[in-house]
Amino acid sequence: MNGEDLSDEQLMLMFRYGNRAAFELLFEKHRGVVYNFALRMTGDRHAAEDICQESFLRVVGAAATYEPTARFRTWLFRIVRNCCVDGFRQANVAARHARKAYRMPDVPAPESAVGAKEAAERLEVAVGALPVDQREAFLLRFRQDMSYTEIAEVTGRSLGAVKSHIHRARLRLAEAMKDWLEMEL
Amino acid sequence: MSNETEVLNCRNCRERLSAYDARELDETGTAEVEKHLEACRECAGLLDAIRYTSKLTARLVDEDTPRVLCLRVLDAVGNSTAPDPANAPEIMTSEDLARFLRVTAADLEDELVSIPAFEIAGELRFRRDHVLEWIEEREEARTRQQEYARLRAV
Q1: Would the pTM of this model clear 0.80, i.e. be above it?
Q2: Could you give all domains of chain A from N- to C-terminal order, each with its CATH number?
């Protein structure tokens, strides 16, 4: 089955009516972003695997009642986000991640100019140290390229709250990265 | 940038930098930030860092999804996808029938004229046995068409 011409919403409807190949295409298309979103939210590969699996199983469970009233990606990420929240409640992973990430900035900066790889690693750590609300809004905006409105739909927060979380996240990250970046810029 | 008023200006400016970069400030707000940035290297440096960080975020490399995770999900789906003809209900609604035939409701609409059905309470119902017979007739008709086309080609 070649699903290149089909939208996610069409594929989901096909899956709703029993076409397993349609689900496989959807899974193939979205598994990477879902897993990596969960990974950056939790900082824990096992937790990210569990969240990714649970999210897609919830997609399967909800297929019978699926109606394409919203964009599939928005609907999917609302599920993923809820799985992350449930995961945080169960394992308190967010707190562990924040503590783990928080230690990293103490590592001394190299004397030579910062390479792109080191800058990326530093940034990953800084993202992991953001408060959960800011981290999810920032990742949805700058990794998933979602609009403020779409992020508000995914997170269930007001537009104002979403903007505020993103602006605060950007400021925190810039401050965390500034010293390193000044060596590069 | 050392006296009390200028430090406060820096604080206000930093609060608005991300919105400034996203072009979300009104004309007055934009002008205030730009005026401050002209005079303050520190805030201008922070704006550079905000922009650089956003670009860097877009370039972060994702990890591959673990193979075992893919297998687990696809396995689970294989076990849970419903439509098994043997387990289809004796009397089916249009929705049951669409699942049974593995087509969308819209596609089924086009075929409803030819599928044996009865009406109850203003809705169509389909007997599984009759649907299976209808499928056999369609198969036979298709085979005949293919045979006819082959003979014509000969």
Answers
A1: no
A2: 1-91 (1.10.1740.10), 95-185 (1.10.10.10)
Interchain contact, A171 vs B102, CB within 8 Å: no
Question: Are B77 and A166 in contact (CB < 8 Å)?
Answer: no
The number of C-beta contacts closer than 8 angstroms across A and B is 131
CA distance A173 to A134: 11
Measuring CA to CA, which residue among A14, A68, A76 is closest to residue B83?
A14
Interchain contact, A119 vs B99, CB within 8 Å: no
- The answer to whether the Cβ–Cβ distance between A17 and B105 falls below 8 Å is yes
CB proximity list for A160: less than 8 A, separation 6 or greater: none
Contact criterion met (CB below 8 Å) for A119 and A180 = yes
User: Given CB atoms, is A159 within the 8 Å cutoff of chain B?
Assistant: no
Q: ipTM value of the model?
A: 0.77
pLDDT in tens, chain A (185 residues): 556 688 999 999 888 887 888 898 999 999 999 999 999 999 999 999 999 999 999 999 888 888 888 899 999 999 999 999 888 777 665 555 554 443 333 444 444 445 778 888 999 999 999 999 999 999 999 999 999 999 999 999 999 999 999 999 999 999 998 877 776 55
CA B117 to chain centre: 34
Residue B124 is given by DSSP the state E
Q: How many whole angstroms separate alpha carbon B154 and alpha carbon A82?
A: 63
